[in-house]
Amino acid sequence: MKEPILIQGGMGAAVSNWRLARAVSTEGQLGVVSGTALDCVLARRLQAGDPGGHMRRALEHFPLPDVVAEIMARYYVPGGKGQAEPFKPVSMFKLAPDEGLLKLTVAANFVEVYLAKEGHDGVVGINYLEKIQMPTLPSLYGAMLAGVDYVLMGAGIPRAIPGILDRLSAHEPVSMKIYVEGATAEDDYEMHFDPRRINPRPEGLLKRPRFVAIVSSSVLAATLAKKSTGRVDGFVVENATAGGHNAPPRGALKLDENGEPVYGPRDEVDLGEVIKLGLPFWLAGSYADPHMLREAIEQGARGIQVGTVFAYCRESGLDDSVKRQVIEKAVAGRAAVFTDPLASPTGFPFKVVELEGSLSEKELYDSRPRVCDLGYLRSAYKREDGTLGFRCPGEPVDAYVRKGGNSEDTIGRKCLCNGLMANIGFPQMQKAGYEEKTLITSGNDLPRIACFVKDGGDMSYSAADVINYLLGAVPALTSKTGVGNPVA
Q1: Do residues 86 and 430 touch, judged by C-beta distance below 8 A?
Q2: Are 41 and 376 in contact (CB under 8 A)?
Q3: What pLDDT does residue 480 have?
Q4: C-alpha–C-alpha distance, residues 254 and 427, integer Å
Q5: What are phi and psi of 331, to 5 degrees?
Q6: Strand-pair partners of 151
Q7: Torsions phi, psi of 366, nearest 5?
């Protein structure tokens, strides 16, 4: 399996969905599904009636029919729930998650990868965030049951993942340390997952996918290459203009006149040190240009990772009305992204598209009832009695403070979890009739999407249009190659 030239970024919750990954993969490049919150995504797709029957078709191929029966009985609504009805909740992860949540998570990751790989022989990857730790182990197993080819992970230091992939390929029990605020060296907080609890009679070994770490420094790349629990197969080297969460600037946080974090020379990645590691790497962050692709290859990269321009193509999971609204702003020269130092409950800078009707508008953010009912970005903390608690700066302020949090940490924090579900057309209907609003994230090269819209066209474009644009102007690179480093 040779390395691709283009990696399609794993964005949001089901923005990089199976349709997008499949479209990119069939063009000879690496299509990537987002592994974030897939348990909730599958549950809501089923409650929406599973238009097209794709979830049910994939579940028919899941190797555990009893698990499928449980999921269907709990979540499937023929014809779909009423628009004013809330979605049935999915349990939140804890140190010892209930068996139903484990089964749903394994099945959901299987479904997304299965559909992305269906009907072709291209390669498919899945993207996870290291900071969302608790669903990771069953998520990986579900993706591997579907034959995922690559696992990509960023937003942390995923040293344990390569060894976990090795063990899961043999259906062996795995564990992973969990970061807990207030924990000491004597504490031992771990997630455990035994595949045979879900799959008691596994058949044969699973393919061990390649592991690609997403990094923002050569030091982190070296640490992962030398100190991980197993084989690291490459890196995506991402700079601060990429969408979603960004690594914070090194040193004391400074904001510019617009209130955005200031990045400087210390935040630039030393590619020479990355090259010394001898592993393939791809560059990311405003590289969606054929000349930037050529430059990346000339610098020693295998190619580039591209996210934002794929996020607004026809095949992505973003709600169609959102796509059109943002594309129209880009065509009019009014598309803007703000790197918000406060929005994310994680404390990491988060790029937010300035969009009417979304939580980017202060008055809409202020009018939203604070609630934490999905919990993917909650932080675990150690209570005085040694037990584990969970809190989120986006939850009601009184509740956060009652759990030992600082009220100042709640200022400006937004519920990314509910925003991400609204982005893909599954907004929760909260109490008193409040419908969750969107919160769109993109990279700094958002205005570039305008170049894909043809004059007199329908304000849309395809994943193939993006690939042909990026590869067409570089000699010897075509959309069907998907291999190697032909311009070295």
Answers
A1: yes
A2: no
A3: 44
A4: 35
A5: -60, -35
A6: 126, 211
A7: -65, -30
Secondary structure class of 37 (helix, strand, coil): coil
Query: What angle (nearest 5°) sits at the alpha carbon of residue 264, between those of residues 262 and 267?
Result: 105
Among residues 211, 191, 69, which one has the least CA distance to residue 133? 191
Give the residue carrying structure tokens 């730790």.
133
Alpha helix segments (H runs only) across 406-458: 416-423
Q: Which domain holds residue 300?
A: 6-317+454-472
Residue 421: strand, helix, or coil: helix
CA gap 14, 209 in Å, rounded: 21
Q: Which helix (H) or strand (E) segment is 290 a member of?
A: helix 290-298
Q: How far is CA 260 from the centre of its chain?
A: 23
At 412, the amino acid letter reads G
CATH number for the domain that contains residue 122: 3.20.20.70
- Picking from 352, 364, 399, 356, the residue whose alpha carbon sits closest to that of residue 378 is 399
Residue 60 within any structural domain of the chain: yes
User: Number of folded domains in the chain?
Assistant: 1
Where residue 476 falls among pLDDT bands split at 50, 70, 90? low
Please report whether residue 339 resides in a domain.
Answer: no
Model confidence over 165-190: pLDDT tens digits? 999 999 999 999 999 999 998 898 99
pLDDT tens figures, 351-409: 999 999 999 999 999 999 999 999 999 999 999 888 899 999 999 999 999 999 999 99
The total of other beta-carbon atoms located within 10 Å of residue 156's CB is: 17
β-sheet bridge partners, residue 198: none
Three-class SS of residue 215?
strand
Residue 477 has pLDDT above 70, yes or no: no
State phi, psi for 31 to the nearest 5 degrees: -80, 135
Q: For residue 180, is it within any domain? A: yes
- CA 296 vs CA 4, 264, 462: distances in Å: 14, 21, 24
Token pair for residue 205?
A: 């070994």
Q: Output the CA torsion sign for 421, 47, 366, 409.
A: negative
Cα separation, 212 vs 488, in Å, equals 21
Residue 481 pLDDT:
42
Q: Please tell me the pTM assigned to this model.
A: 0.93
The three-class DSSP label of residue 401 is helix
For residue 420, being part of any structural domain is answered with: no
| Side chain identity, residue 29 | Q
Q: Which residues contact 281 (CB under 8 A, 6 or more apart)?
A: 221, 234, 235, 236, 237, 274, 275, 300, 301, 302
